[in-house]
Amino acid sequence: MLIATERLILRRFRASDAPALAGYRSDPAVARYQSWDAPFPLDRAEVAVRNFAAGSPDQAGHFQYAIELTGERPLIGDVYVRLHDNLMQAEIGFTLATAYQRRGFGREALSAVLDRLFRVQGLHKVTGECDARNTRSAALLERLGFQREGLLRQQTFLKGEWTDDLLYGLLATEWAGR
């Protein structure tokens, strides 16, 4: 399981990724809209990497793709996929280290994963959800063709406050028409 793009390699996590994962997840700007708190300790990253590596992108459940730069090999982020039991739907999420944001890497990584989900695995629909205040993530989903399907008001209690969640969906027919 390896996905290559012009600038990126998306692959299974390995034990050596733990320090980089702890590094970018410890950045308060990266953690702001995520379920974890910064700092993200190395021992927690080691457990996370082991769990990520145990998943399968073709079986129901969670799979996390490691994103690295082609040639340079630094881990710059990850793409989360939760494949539903019916193997026809999935949820997607993403995280990028601050230094690699706003450079098109998120779009490139998500496009590659969506291509695999729709064209290789034959999924019918992929959904995404983000904190309503995370306008950059919402904009990226929209640039990829996701349609906003809803707003869940005060849906998630995160870091001491209730937050609104935006719901997005993308159908295989919409992706094929790109």
Automatic annotation (TrEMBL):
Keywords: Transferase. It comes from the Bacteria. Pfam families: Acetyltransf_3. PROSITE patterns: GNAT (PS51186). One of its GO terms (molecular function) is acyltransferase activity, transferring groups other than amino-acyl groups. Residues 8-173 form the N-acetyltransferase domain. This is GCN5 family acetyltransferase. It comes from Actinoplanes utahensis.
